Amino acid sequence: MPELRKDPITGRWVIISTDRSKRPSDFVRESVEIKGTGVCPFCYGNESKTPPEVLQYGRNGSGPNTPGWQVRAVPNKFPALGIEGDLDREGEGLFDRMNGVGAHEVIIETPDHRGTLATMNEKQIEDVLWAFRDRMFDLKNDKRFRYILVFKNHGEAAGASLEHTHSQLIALPIVPKNVVEELDGARRYYQDKERCIFCDMIRQEVDSGVRLIGETDLFVTLAPYAPRFPFEMWILPKQHASAFENHQSLIYAGLAKALKDNLARLDLVLDRPAYNLMIHTAPIGEETSEHYHWHIEIIPKLTKVAGFEWGTGFYICPTPPEESARFMREAQLKPADRVASPPGPAL
User: Fold this and answer.
1) How is domain 3-83+97-334 classified at the architecture level of CATH?
2) Are 115 and 342 in contact (CB under 8 A)?
3) Directed axis angle between helix 321-329 and helix 249-270, to 10°?
4) Counting Cβ atoms within 10 Å, is residue 240 exposed (0-12), middle (13-18) or buried (19+)?
5) CB atoms near residue 250 (< 10 Å)
């Protein structure tokens, strides 16, 4: 019989459709294939095709916006929000508005056109995480911004317009509604029990093991109890912390290892699916709260949101998280899956 499950943090309900439970092979999808055709603005030699860089790692000796980099951050050529101007908040009767002020940047994760986070080595992934951190710290100095979202669209089905692996960062003048709901739910739990709900979740899931995908000294990966989508997974630091950017090198090295392992498992189990990755972190000015716990959510694009979801706010997940966690946990990675693939030709 199908189950209704309630997310303990946000209070969101989902339907786990156990009567039509699907295995990984049951999902109809196209694997992400990096074809490497055409001119790519993110490849070596094409630095002039992007706006001037705001960060780079790896280049020694040569000037800015030239080859030689290993990670590069640039303003988005087609930004969702503009960096210039004042907010000018105002009301129009019962409506509120403000200018579309914000920052929208692209983090180009590697010069290798054929590389992905699943095939890059751990040091390369760690450098990407440091780029996230450094750009967040820089943008937090702008008093107009309240929240910084880091996300990744991998594959066309997930919204990526270019196949060269990259992430994006958007600094916003407001805290998004989804983040507020998560913060409020975590705050209510803490006020009631004087414990972090995410820390309690980690302890319970590690003890039971049924939704646990992986565990290291520093991180756990689990399938959430009430997932919106099949094979949704969360990566959480074991040590309580509210802000992704407030860590030392040990954490980023550990997260790089966890990310590589989990994304390699995702590629193996689901045949290189498109996915969305989001870093959930505390708003600017709330980086040291006792109730909130930063984490990463990864959502493979295996199903579509349709009328029922839009009309109710409920999600239908055709694979119980206990099953998806088992498939991911039991995936037999070969040594070649754990190391970087040989670099492909730059375009």
Assistant:
1) 2-Layer Sandwich (3.30)
2) no
3) 100
4) middle
5) 10
The domain locations on the chain are 3-83+97-334
The half-sphere exposure of 43 on its side-chain side, counting CA atoms within 13 A, is 17
Query: How many Cβ atoms sit within 10 Å of the Cβ of residue 235?
Result: 22
Tokens of 114: 């054929």
Blockwise average pLDDT, block size 10, the chain, 347 residues: 92 83 68 84 94 93 89 95 90 91 96 95 96 97 96 94 96 95 96 97 97 96 96 97 94 96 95 96 94 97 89 90 94 66 41
Q: Taking the complete model, does pTM exceed 0.85, yes or no?
A: yes
DSSP 131-156: HHHHHHHHHTT-TT--EEEEEEEESG
* Catalytic choice (104, 154, 164, 166): 166
Backbone φ and ψ of 205, nearest 5°:
-70, -35
Non-local CB neighbours of 211 within 8 Å, separated by 6+ positions: 205, 222, 223, 224, 225, 321, 322, 325
Q: Is 164 a catalytic residue?
A: no
Number of other CB atoms surrounding residue 90 within 10 Å: 10
Q: What DSSP string runs through 251-283?
A: HHHHHHHHHHHHHHHHHHHHTS--EEEEEE-PP
Report the C-alpha gap between 276 and 157 in whole angstroms: 10
- Who contacts 334 (Cβ-Cβ below 8 Å, separation ≥6)? none
Torsion angle (degrees, nearest 10) of CA 201, 231, 34, 125: 10
Count the residues in the chain: 347
**Residue 167, token pair as written in the block:** 């992430």
- The answer to whether residues 122 and 160 touch, using CB atoms and an 8 Å cutoff, is no
Contacts of 289 (CB under 8 A, 6+ apart): 242, 282
Instruction: Give phi and psi for 147, each to the nearest 5.
Output: -150, 145
Centre a 10 Å sphere on the Cβ of residue 204 and count the other Cβ atoms it contains.
12
